[in-house]
């Protein structure tokens, strides 16, 4: 396995010895520290709260900006102990984490950001298979970071589904490619980091995203029309931990971390909501992004498309194979 820096190798070696007694836990994230968005600020809050709640006995050192593992390497890096904690961008791994990526197979869906986070907590509580999927890969979920409701950021104004025919739209995962094809548009698979340049160079015409993320990644510098297309909130990240590191904690510290994971979701949600309000104000002012309505019924009508239904059926099949009775889960994700 090849890692991006020699730091990762040194870190892996240091974690091999005495992990249970370690007072400094490591957190790896692809996010730059200077991003100053809800993701980075809430993570800083998490770090500070952990130190405070453990009375300074333990702390967390964050390795920002993919310096230890790139976004696509994080699950494996955590599983091997190249970091104690980290962000797993769940939609990038629909095959590796099919149960925990349920939201990613059901787009569009009606849940808000808060409701998505609540659903993940509920599913982990009621269906042990969700946690088992992580445990089998030496991982443990500390918390969940849902994203905001998504619309479509475009370089040209879009008024109806007809305007999307032939447009090139950024895509990832399973549901978006099928949904974009149902729009008669062209899905273009891109990572988040590659999408700015793709929009700037008109390699793609649009990208599904929420306002706060669009501002965070500065997509709104190169695409000036935000279409209120009701994709629903996206499930973003599992705040995950190496299972050995988690089990190696003393009972008191583990209890602190468990409660902190619950409190984190509340704090993050508040930051995200405030950030979206601020971004929309900036769009109306100095950033000059035009927000356009979209007939939501045109999008929800595409749920009956054969390709979209095939993606949903694929998740149901995976759930059945895992022994999950999925009726209650799927009911949450239907309009």
Automatic annotation (TrEMBL):
<feature type="signal peptide">
    <location>
        <begin position="1"/>
        <end position="22"/>
    </location>
</feature>
<dbReference type="GO" id="GO:0055085">
    <property type="term" value="P:transmembrane transport"/>
</dbReference>
<keyword id="KW-0732">Signal</keyword>
<protein>
    <recommendedName>
        <fullName>C4-dicarboxylate ABC transporter substrate-binding protein</fullName>
    </recommendedName>
</protein>
<dbReference type="Pfam" id="PF03480">
    <property type="entry name" value="DctP"/>
</dbReference>
<dbReference type="GO" id="GO:0042597">
    <property type="term" value="C:periplasmic space"/>
</dbReference>
<dbReference type="InterPro" id="IPR018389">
    <property type="entry name" value="DctP_fam"/>
</dbReference>
<keyword id="KW-0574">Periplasm</keyword>
<dbReference type="InterPro" id="IPR038404">
    <property type="entry name" value="TRAP_DctP_sf"/>
</dbReference>
């Amino acid at each position: 396995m090849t890692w991006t820096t020699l730091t990762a190798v040194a870190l892996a070696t240091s974690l091999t010895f005495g992990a249970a007694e370690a007072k400094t836990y490591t957190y790896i994230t692809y996010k730059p520290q200077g991003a100053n968005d809800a993701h980075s600020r809430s993570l800083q809050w998490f770090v500070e709260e952990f130190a405070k709640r453990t009375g300074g006995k333990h702390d967390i050192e964050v390795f920002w900006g993919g310096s230890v593992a790139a976004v696509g390497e994080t699950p494996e890096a955590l599983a091997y102990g190249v970091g104690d904690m980290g962000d797993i961008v769940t939609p990038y791994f629909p095959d590796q984490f099919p149960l925990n990526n349920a939201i990613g197979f059901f787009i569009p869906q009606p849940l808000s950001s808060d409701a998505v986070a609540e659903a993940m907590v509920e599913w982990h509580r009621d269906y042990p298979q969700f946690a088992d999927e992580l445990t089998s890969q030496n991982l443990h979920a500390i918390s969940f970071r849902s994203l905001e409701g998504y619309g479509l950021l475009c370089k040209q104004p879009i008024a109806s589904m007809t305007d999307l025919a032939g447009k090139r739209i950024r895509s990832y995962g399973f549901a978006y490619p099928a949904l974009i094809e149902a729009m008669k548009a062209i899905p273009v698979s891109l990572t988040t980091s590659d999408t700015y340049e793709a929009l700037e160079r008109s390699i793609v015409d649009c990208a599904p995203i929420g306002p706060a993320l669009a501002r965070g990644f500065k997509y709104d510098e190169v695409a000036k029309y935000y279409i209120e297309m009701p994709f629903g909130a996206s499930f973003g990240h599992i705040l995950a931990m190496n299972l050995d590191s988690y089990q190696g904690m003393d009972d008191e510290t583990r209890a602190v971390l468990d409660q902190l994971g619950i409190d984190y979701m509340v704090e993050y949600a508040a930051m995200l909501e405030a950030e979206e309000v601020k971004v929309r104000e900036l769009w109306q002012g100095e950033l000059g992004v035009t927000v356009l309505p979209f007939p939501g019924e045109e999008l929800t009508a595409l749920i009956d498309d054969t390709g979209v239904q095939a993606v949903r059926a694929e998740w149901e099949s995976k759930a059945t194979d895992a022994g999950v009775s999925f009726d209650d889960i799927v009911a949450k994700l239907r309009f």
